[in-house]
Amino acid sequence: MTTLPRELSPTVAAVFAAVDAERQRLGVPGAVVAVRSPDAEPWSVALGVRDIATDEPLAVDAVLRVGSVTKTIVATVVLRLIERGELGLDDDILAHLPHVRVPSGVTVRRLLDMTAGLPEYTTEEFMEISHTTPDRVWGPQELLDLAFREPHRFAPGSSWDYCNAGYILLGMLAEHVTGDLVEDLARKLVLDPLGLHDTSLPPRSAAGTSLPDATVRGYHRVGAELVDTTDVNPSWAWTAGNAISTADDLVVLVEALVRGDLLAEETQRARLAGVPVPGTDWSYGLGIANFGGIWGHNGELPGFQTFAGHEPGTGRTIVVLANVDKSTDEVNPADTLAALVRRHLAPGTA
Fold first, then answer.
1. pTM for the whole thing?
2. Which of 334, 327, 254 is nearest to 290 (CA)?
């Protein structure tokens, strides 16, 4: 049973009570929910537990893996390098990395907005390998080699398809043109300027499997069973999904991304010029998505699922971090809880 903070107003408490009921229905062990709105008090609440074996409550400042929210950080690094003149948005990747097996026309822009047509490495077979060899440290070139066993999905610029391999290539590109580790570039160009001291891209290493707080556990759902996957080495996600963060840090991050705090106006316009996502009313910009009026990103890694979004029309920000990757009915738990919060906060309902 979750105990809500006494200082929450009755309206806010009702929202979080509904969210907590849905969390329990979805079979989510723990979640942290943060909401910011220009016309209401800030809300950050931890629901459920950090460890199903001990029933220890999850803390509101828990550091969890945020999966593909990492892409927003890496994309901002790349855009800042472009503004420094070290890259061009429409540079062909082969001009910088001629050894990479991609066709001409795979540009920085097309990697960022996922119109490059690269094949993917995160196949079902690969995920099984990662679970059977949880301590393995994966290198970026290994990941690309796996991806490029498959044919390219489409001619660069002719369609859209979500692709982790493209963001691995962006990480390699950033390191190539600067000579710096991408983890250090993220700290220097994004995290420190925004004051995100609880957010990082951990280095790839055999010892890099644990979160800062070992009592926080993440769970992979296999049917009705929850399997602890906290210590599966996340090096395979690297610049596509290796970041760790807190709910409050992600609030700051996503608001800054949507406002364009770190970029020139022209670069920000390019970031938000989204490509339609087939079969949805969403669009995908340069490392950021428009989920029907709320901009941001979601992310999933074995054991964790995250949603971070800012709605320019209302000024509201919603962040949810969950310590399980799928719900009992196989939906993304953080996405589902965030959508519930958004419905409760729709005009005229709060």
1. 0.95
2. 254
